[in-house]
Amino acid sequence: MNDLPNRARSISSLRDFLELLEDSGQAITWSDPVMPEPGVRNIAVAASRDANGAPAIVFDNITGYPGKRLAVGVHGSWDNIALLLGRPKGTTIRELFFEIAGRWGDQEAQISYVPEAQAPVHECRLEQDINLYDILPVYRINEYDGGFYIGKASVASRDPLDPDNFGKQNVGIYRLQIQGPDSFTLMTIPAHDMGRQILAAEREKVPLKIAVMLGNHPGLAVFAATPIGYEESEYSYASAMMGAPIRLTKSGNGIDILADSEIVIEAELQLGERELEGPFGEFPGSYSGVRKAPIFKVTAVSHRRDPIFENIYIGRGWTEHDTLIGLHTSAPIYAQLRQSFPEVTAVNALYQHGLTGIISVKNRMAGFAKTVALRALSTPHGVMYLKNLIMVDADVDPFDLNQVMWALSTRTRADDVIVLPNMPAVPIDPSAVVPGKGHRLIIDATSYLPPDPVGEAHLVTPPTGDEIDALSKRIREMQLGALS
Amino acid sequence: MTTTVCGRCKSSGAVTDYQGRQDGAVVWTILRCATCNFSWRDSEPARAIDPAARSADFAVDAGDLQRYPKILQQ
Ligand SMILES: [Zn+2]
């Protein structure tokens, strides 16, 4: 398929993307009867064992949910991410990383508006007697979750104190726990846009209305999950990064939403109220605690005819969460580091949202990599997330863990390790000293340079580069061809 | 038989939120504990919903709901 880049740019909805995935052997339909628990979880986990090639799975025969469809694993493999970016299956993670990093500031946003009456998302509309369980084929994602979670919701809201400002609209991914037929709790922290908006609405006693978009344009979840500047529109950013138009319309409660999403739940914050939420199996692979979280009441639901409910398996990795956010976690750190240090050649922050990161750098002088590591800790994502950093030379591919292990084995001295005690930490990091506070680790696995008296070893130099990459892919193709 | 005793905090008096049907017959029921908000489907494996089979690590103390912190305070 030579038209992959054009086809990727023509995607405007989840349905378009599922069609592209299916044409490429990257989506399957599960039509055997399956129980919501533990059947859906078991199948999603089994699929995510194959981080490179797992297909999206569309369930259409879940017991007790006749006629309803559920999609999981839409972003669940590097091959699916490659197709979204207009690249063929088998594209390496390193190539995908540079595909995303290269799109920075490259394109203009293309935003258009569709009248509500013509927006597919509004084909069916419910304004009373709403029961979310009657619309969404939910299931318990991990066995000790406190309830039924919507794990892949893009939540859109306007700033409650500046509701007419397009740029201050926020779109973010938050976990939602269904709390009865027409209510849900939303988990956030004060540092996130939604947390800030909830606090502002409650302080000023003004309404906060939100629109929860489910089954969205697949670019939105990739590019709207990582924080950007508060006054940048996530829609504009996602459109620019996809190099493709995004169609918006208005929700019934006046918020800009994607016109082609499968389902939109409109809701309003219950000011000052909190309900017990959690636990939820989170991305570090451990459960969050039980807390009292803000609660929203559903005011209306719009959906396409025969909607597809899209959800995610998240928990102890590797999971769809890692392929969904990994590259777009890595690329901003890379861009921010290169502003100060153009010697940085790649950043791999794929592991648990960057709790471990590997950075390759051209070592300017002895110890330079440690300086770069300290700069990484002060990037927006690094402040909370980059807990363990492994610094490698530019001749090591940080996306190839065999090469990283070689660098650790041959270029690390035990005193090339720095521990920074009692630093900020992600509250859900289970290794924290107390939630929100923990230690940082920097391992300098770069080679020795003057004035270090040891100097670099005389290295064996096996052939590398594009020619070897192409040969490696050809060998794999020949092997796959021999099988079929 | 559907029990309305919560598998997590052992309170009784859960409410029914939804019933799944297949060819007209009810195949499972979703319940919600009025005390701790635990929601469950009565068709789930016992280790997730049966108080006798559930791990105590995930119990909620219905007598001390104050201990659970409130997020987003002014
Ligand atoms: Zn309970």
Automatic annotation (TrEMBL), chain A:
Cellular component, GO, one term: cytosol
NCBIfam families: UbiD family decarboxylase (TIGR00148), VdcC (NF041204)
GO molecular function: 4-hydroxy-3-polyprenylbenzoate decarboxylase activity
InterPro entries xref list: PAD_UbiD-like, UbiD, UbiD-like_C, UbiD-like_N, UbiD_Rift_dom
GO biological process terms held by the UniProt record: ubiquinone biosynthetic process
All residue ranges annotated as the 3-octaprenyl-4-hydroxybenzoate carboxy-lyase-like N-terminal domain in the record: 18-97
UniProt-recorded name of the protein: UbiD family decarboxylase
Residue span(s) of domain 3-octaprenyl-4-hydroxybenzoate carboxy-lyase-like C-terminal: 323-445
UniProtKB/TrEMBL annotation, chain B:
InterPro entries: VdcD-like
Pfam family of the protein (one): EcdD_BsdD_detox
Protein name: Phenolic acid decarboxylase subunit D
Species whose genome carries this gene: Novosphingobium olei
